[in-house]
Amino acid sequence: MGKSGRVLVVEDEVILLLDLVDSLVDFGLEPLPVTTASGAASLLGDNIAGLITDIELPGAYDGLQLARLAARSRPGLPIVVVSAGVRPSREDLPTGAVFLPKPYRVEDIVAALESQRIARAA
């Protein structure tokens, strides 16, 4: 994955967060774990190569709001949105973002990030 391979991972269920972080390391990525959308928003710098976010998060902002903020502040950033309970419409997602329902395969998340990176580099 481009740049440093640093991926912002936003999930409030700690077991799922730690499992995903471990799996992403196995794919050669550098995950940066966060449990809230507001905490993640402050980390959306140029050193982030992708965003994976759950929709249902604690606090004032949910994962869809975070994804839209990320798309506005970092055009071209690969974004994967996941959820077990919410099925967003295409219009709910930022352009180019991919939704994967839980339970997901980590391989599918990595493939979605990579395909967005390639598409936007072309």
Largest sheet: 5 strands, parallel
Number of domains: 1
Question: Between the first and last Cα atoms, what is the distance in angstroms?
Answer: 14 Å
In total, the number of strands is: 5
| Rounded Rg | 13 Å
Shape type: globular
CATH topology description: Rossmann fold
- The assigned structural class equals alpha/beta
Query: Can you tell me the residue ranges where pLDDT is under 50 for at least 5 consecutive residues?
Result: none
**Mean of residue pLDDT values:** 94
Number of helices: 4
- CATH class identity: Alpha Beta
Any guess at the CATH architecture? 3-Layer(aba) Sandwich
CATH superfamily: Response regulator
β-strand percent reads 15-25%
Give a structural overview.
The chain is α/β, with parallel strands linked by helices. The chain has one domain: Rossmann fold (3-Layer(aba) Sandwich). 37% of the residues lie in helices and 20% in strands. It has a 5-stranded parallel sheet, with helices on both faces. Helix 1 (14-26) links the parallel strand 1 and strand 2. The longest helix is centred in the C-terminal third of the chain and has 16 residues, at 106-121. It is globular and about 35 Å long. 32% of the residues are buried. InterPro entries: CheY-like_superfamily, Sig_transdc_resp-reg_receiver. The modification 4-aspartylphosphate is found at residue 54. This is Response regulator.
